[in-house]
Amino acid sequence: MEKGEELENGKRVETQPESEKDMRMIREVAKLTGVSIRTLQYYDEIGLLKPKRREGSRYRLYGKEDLERLQQILFFRELLTAKRDRLNGLIRLLKKLERGEEALSFVEFDLSGYFEMLERFRTQNPKKVKKLFGSLEMFDWTVEKIRRKEQTLGKKVAEQYGSVENFTRSIEDGFQQAENLMDNPWIQRVRACYQELASDLSRNVGDEDVQDIVKEIVQIGETKLHATGKAWEFVAKAFQENPGIIEGNDLLYGKGGTEYIGRAFAYYLDSVKQGREKEGSFTN
């Protein structure tokens, strides 16, 4: 086959040589890809990536195909590096077992990557954060609570997920699923009802308009969202007694709003219980 020809469907066709302007010198390739000039020279020396052309003994010129091959090399290099790091980590853990030491320690499962993902998610997706958590403040509060339990969480991550990377991917997937869930109009209505409950704390929790809101939440929850009575018992109790839940949810509902919602649900549950007792006395 003559120079400037290649086969296409069994026939010889003329090809256009790569123009001078499409060629890149080694320093341009290094700047474009982030690979050092010395590394590119080394790849050339071992035959891994030879430049398409040379000018004299010093200048290497790379074409489009060379750049594509370099991208493949970098991909597999990263893949092998990740596998090697995991293997080295496994070897370290096995050696600890041989010495009779505890295999799963927090040191091997540093959660900095997880917290970086959360911070990146907050910075890049403020609207999604508000959609999922109700407010940026609620998100920040949640992350801070997790940081306080970082060491305990690290051990649980090690046991349940095997690596922080697996855990982080699981959380990212969870964010996506939660976002899809929040698009449910019934969930949006329930969230609006909670806000409505806490909009005026001067009302008596037994007032008809307050209890109508609670009843709507319960009705939607049980008929559309598969909630059970235990969910309302949790709201009634935890929203009044759990300091962490009160502190966090007050970021959404305002100071005192969480406890007020808890009292409104407690009143509702008491009313339901009394109604059932009355029905029982009539049937007996």
**Main sheet properties:** 3 strands, antiparallel
What is the number of independent domains?
Answer: 3
Helical segment count? 13
Q: What is the average of the pLDDT values?
A: 76
Strand-and-helix sequence, N→C? EEEHHEEHHHHHHHHHHH
Structure, explained:
With 284 residues, this protein is mostly helical. It folds into 3 domains: 84 residues, Multidrug-efflux Transporter Regulator, Chain: A, Domain 2; 73 residues, no CATH class; 92 residues. 70% of the residues lie in helices and 6% in strands. The strands form 2 sheets. Strands 3-5-4 form a 3-stranded antiparallel beta sheet. A two-stranded antiparallel ribbon has the order 1-2. A hairpin with a 3-residue loop joins strand 4 and strand 5.
Essential attributes:
5 strands, DNA-bd_dom_put_sf, mainly alpha, elongated, Multidrug-efflux Transporter Regulator, Chain: A, Domain 2, MerR family transcriptional regulator, disordered N terminus, 13 helices, MerR_fam, two-stranded antiparallel ribbon, DNA binding, DNA-binding
